Amino acid sequence: MGEELLKNHGLKVTSARLAVLSVLSSSPIPLTAEAIYESTKKEGLNLSTVYRTLNSFEEANIVKKEIGHNKESIFSLEREEDSHVLVCTKCHKTVKLEGCPYHEVNEAIENETGFVLEDHNTAIYGICPDCQKKK
Amino acid sequence: MGEELLKNHGLKVTSARLAVLSVLSSSPIPLTAEAIYESTKKEGLNLSTVYRTLNSFEEANIVKKEIGHNKESIFSLEREEDSHVLVCTKCHKTVKLEGCPYHEVNEAIENETGFVLEDHNTAIYGICPDCQKKK
DNA sequence: AATGCAAGTGCAAATCATTTGCAACAAGAA
DNA sequence: TTCTTGTTGCAAATGATTTGCACTTGCATT
To answer: Cβ separation of B115 and A129 shorter than 8 Å?
Structure first.
């Protein structure tokens, strides 16, 4: 399944890329390079290969790279609809949001200032109701 | 002038802290630890002292720490009004915004989901009108 | 003003995420 | 199959930030 995708984006089909792609496509939330590396242990990928793969994917617009809660990069497949996820910084539970909550606001800023805003993150961090109780 | 501030927050008054404070208070935009270090060259501070100072300041809620455009931490004084800055990623020109553009949206998300959102960044990145023309 | 102790500091070394140089290797065009 | 070029592994480099340790300083207490 990943083969098509890779070819369409002008990338050679390799087992490393297929492995990374498969991990990403089965994850509902953005992952760190490290996490992807762990999930591909069976394929025996090298961590730097994972990084290089993710970077090619990003250039090819197959994945989106954002900055995670602790400054590490996190990667997720570029999906059609821009869905956003709330992530609890305590328990890592996640909740999907419909659409992009910041879309209108950003558009307004662009119109008022003439700036073109950088693509924003799809992961929004906070503390979930359960973890608030556990306080 | 910084002495009061430090004491009020239960921090010892040291020359390092006063120096960092003075650099921060005369900057309209958030700075990296490196930049602060450079600006305090005359005082001969050690870079790790700058980091430690900034971290104490953050714990004491004197400064706000955010993630800059290239993943480095950037620090700014915690000012009363939450003013936001647009920063051009090409020329680094900055534009102040009035108030917090994301306030209502975030509140809505909190109400809908029960999450308490993490404090968000005051630096918003994009490309300014001039740099767009220079394309 | 002298003293004592906890907190602050400099320095060098450690750490963490990420990148890079280089040699070996595999994908896909010819 | 062969050739060219992109891809990978490995180990070492990098850059931002942190930390261990010995020394110094702020400041509360004599």
So the answer is: yes
